[in-house]
Write a structure and sequence with these properties.
single chain; 6 strands; 41% helix; 14% strand; globular
Length: 271
């Protein structure tokens, strides 16, 4: 099976592209074939339309908290909801989020989705550090437009399957919460490089026991992963590993009572 891991950004450009780890899964062996960069959304949309079959792990929320959707009067259908958000300007979407926060009590300004709470992810409506709500606005409608099967939001018989993934889950399972990346040059420290080295080593040593997968990378690829202080290449690979694991699980490791409007991040402890 062809596996793609996508480290996403809501503002792709040459200096900060959407990064894709292209892999091949055969039995329990996942081979990194190469890294690709999409400098704009046109390139990303072309990636989504590649011939089936493939499974993609995408590092952005596929849905928003149901409480937010209800309060803003957005459609209760997943595709209609994501398209309604995409029709807003980014500033309008931010204003909608700010208005919702203003109605909420302290400590509950940004309610998480159920999958956010269980996985330890930031709320999908967070607009800064990281701006995952803007990533949702840019990413989810494009998945829908491409006609992919998007479980649990809009599953179909299409053999191009999109899975929401979260590289932080796998990183934490392997090296805890040690920081290993940054887009800021001032924070691209030797300590983070050492943590990145530890994470890359753990992918070889601990992945079989953790997820039942064996990772195959060339020495040159390992060097590139280590050298990328932004962590984009490494996060893309983590997304590919996450997607490959989910693909091998019954029902893609999604619980029977999953909310299709909010979406789900599959993971062993969350199924």
């Amino acid at each position: 099976m062809r596996i793609y891991g996508i480290d996403f950004t809501s503002a792709p450009r040459r200096a900060k592209p959407i990064t894709c780890a292209a892999c091949t899964l055969q039995d329990d062996r996942l081979t990194l074939d190469g890294m690709e960069a999409c400098d704009d959304f046109a390139g990303f949309e072309q990636l989504l339309r590649r011939p089936a079959p493939w499974v993609g792990g995408f590092d952005f929320p596929f849905g928003q908290p149901r409480a937010l959707i209800a309060a803003l009067g957005l459609p209760q259908d997943w595709a209609e909801c994501s398209n309604a958000v995409a029709a807003m300007t980014a500033d309008t979407w931010r204003a909608q989020l700010s208005g919702f926060r203003a109605t909420r009590p302290a400590g509950r300004k940004e309610p998480p989705r159920r999958t956010d709470r269980l996985s330890g992810a930031q709320s999908a409506m967070k607009a800064v550090n990281p701006p995952v709500a803007l990533m949702y606005r840019a990413g989810a409608p494009r998945l829908a437009e491409a006609g992919l099967s998007i479980p649990p939001c809009r599953p179909s018989a299409d053999r191009r399957i999109a899975i929401e993934t979260y590289p932080g889950l796998l990183a934490r399972a392997l090296i805890g919460r040690a920081p290993y990346k940054s887009d800021s040059r001032a924070q691209q420290t030797a300590a983070r490089a050492a943590n990145r080295h530890a994470l890359i080593a753990a992918l070889s040593d601990e992945l079989p026991a953790l997820l039942g997968l064996q990772l195959r990378c060339s020495d040159a690829q390992l060097h590139e992963l280590q050298a990328d202080a932004s962590g984009d290449r490494l996060d893309a690979l983590l997304c590919a590993i996450h997607a490959a694991w989910a693909w091998r699980q019954p029902a893609l490791a999604m619980p029977a009572d999953v909310d299709p409007l909010e979406g789900w991040i599959p993971w062993p402890a969350l199924a």
